[in-house]
Amino acid sequence: MADQIALIDYGAGNLHSVHNALKAAGCTDVAVTADPAVVRKAARIVLPGVGSFGACANGLRAIEGMVDALDERVRRDGTPFLGICVGMQLLATRGLEHGATSGLGWIAGEVRAIEVTDPAIKVPHMGWNDVALPAHDRSAGLIEEGEAYFLHSYHFVPENGHDIAAMTDHGGGIVAAVAQDNIVGVQFHPEKSQSYGLSLLTRFLEWKP
User: Fold this and answer.
1) Which of 5, 36, 177, 183 is the most buried (most CB within 10 A)?
2) What digits encode the pLDDT tens for the residues 59-80?
3) For the domain that residue 53 is a member of, what is the CATH number?
4) Which among 97, 110, 155, 191 is annotated as catalytic?
5) Is 72 a catalytic residue?
């Protein structure tokens, strides 16, 4: 139990693929769970997410005690946390997809629709794209430059640029990752990003923020 990873099951994640990717990265104890008690004992926490911001936020809050358990374990205790795709977007103050919905509020900012002026640039942003790091590493070595797989129509716009851990370009700059202390979120899908994604997950298993 001491080294267990809690992979949060709230009806909004690509759980099977993420579970398999964590195992391929070297994790021998992954608990796919909707139980706040398991989250409170986990050594690391992964929050996936596929779909709309509102549906994911509501699904997470529908599990009694889950948001409180995440707050306690991640923000109070400093447990390493990784949010993936909408799981990363939920870190924001609010999302503006189909109306405004409150996020977890761990990293100040909004999740907005991707806006492009060039008709050749398609939305959703789908496929492989570069991941570029800012001048100062915000993720304590967790995020590296490379190429990852993206699939999204909305993007995280943090209030504070210091929370940006990586960028990509899709008709303009788009935040590819955010980081703050023990909390990291990635817009791309590590579980679909082949060797780049597995390397990230391997580093997450060893990460000591």
Assistant:
1) 177
2) 999 999 999 999 999 999 999 9
3) 3.40.50.880
4) 191
5) no
